[in-house]
Amino acid sequence: MKKIDLADTNEFSPISMRSFVLHDSPYFKIINFNLGAGQLFPVHSHQIEGQLSIVVLEGEGEFLTDNASIPAKVGEILVSDISDPHGVKAKTNMRILVTIAPPI
Do residues 69 and 47 touch, judged by C-beta distance below 8 A? Predict the structure, then answer.
């Protein structure tokens, strides 16, 4: 069993998003990304099978696809195939928790 304190990863950079790998195993990976207001986690995809979830822990912004944006706020979760284009744009300081299975 493993306990993770998200307060330990509450750091932002004025230059670029910050990332913290919280868990990495053969089964899944959990990463905390912190985006400052206006920062972008560019739309991308991975050509493997699996799924990901993006949970908004703090702030607000948009979940992005290659042709749309979906408003995102605290408590909302996006679930997607890993091969589908995905990204995030922060409107305010924004913390997201990404789970990827299987890990890449």
Answer: no
